[in-house]
Specification:
- This protein has three helices and 15 strands.
- With 217 residues, it is mainly beta.
- The chain has a domain at 4-58 and 68-97 and 122-187: hypothetical protein yedk fold (Alpha-Beta Complex), CATH 3.90.1680.
- Strands 7, 8, 11, 12, 13 and 14 form a six-stranded mixed β-sheet that branches. It has a five-stranded antiparallel β-sheet with strand order 2-1-9-10-15, with no helix packed on it.
- A hairpin with a 2-residue loop joins β3 (37-44) and β4 (47-54).
Length: 217
């Protein structure tokens, strides 16, 4: 599953789209990978707030090694998620415009960016919590990939439509399960930006160098 996403919009666009009640002067990161900061929208006392938070819950390691990070929630029955997924206070919306998957052969992989037609901003269903190891963090939920994404990865983000934001933030565990196991958004709703940019390049989609579908890698 992709561990790279971006918000290729201005801060004010995010504030307006997600109806942020308590705006703050946060920098929109050019990209987010596990361990780096991403934007999340939380709701408290009926007010939505925008925060900048690192991606990845602590995952315990053996032999006393420092915890690693896990940023994707694929199995709701995993004990590490059992409290987080049940209680709405741990839910958040993660603003994104693009998510990426690696494309090409090992050692030469490039960035293929996926986005929705005619929808410049979308929300990835997320969870957030203040942890002892890393402080405030977030993770995001995945689902079975649609036909467009599947050649790159068998998982894709659980993406929410604007009229589903309230249900995600306040719904029951049954709602969480329903979101993860429903049919993914159809392939025809998406477009792919193939690029010449190496996977580790740090080049966001707004500055990407497009590549034709038939170009040899």
């Amino acid at each position: 599953m992709s561990r790279l996403f971006a918000v290729a919009r201005e801060l004010q666009d995010v504030v307006e789209h997600f109806k942020i009640d308590v705006p703050s002067n946060i920098k929109v990161p050019p990209e987010t990978v596990e361990g780096t900061r991403g934007l999340i929208v939380i709701e408290h006392d009926g007010l939505r707030r925008l925060k900048s938070t690192p991606w990845g819950f602590p995952r315990l390691t053996r032999n006393g090694a420092p915890p690693s990070r896990i940023g994707l929630v694929a199995d709701l029955t995993n004990p590490m998620w059992e409290r987080v997924v049940v209680e709405p206070k741990y839910r958040c919306l993660v603003p994104i415009t693009h998510f990426a998957n690696p494309e090409g052969v090992k050692g030469q992989k490039t960035r293929a960016w996926f986005s929705l037609h005619r929808q410049p901003l979308m929300a990835w269903a997320g969870f957030c919590k203040n942890t002892e190891a890393f402080g405030p963090v977030f993770a995001v939920m995945t689902t079975t990939a649609n036909d467009l994404v599947r050649p790159f990865n068998d998982r894709m983000p659980v993406l929410l439509k604007p009229d589903e934001y309230d249900r995600w933030l306040h719904g029951s565990i049954q709602d969480v399960i329903a979101f993860q196991f429903r049919e993914p958004m159809p392939s025809e709703d998406f477009e792919i930006l193939h690029t010449r940019d190496r996977w580790q390049s740090g080049i966001p989609p707004g500055n990407a160098f497009p590549r034709p579908h038939n170009m040899l890698i």
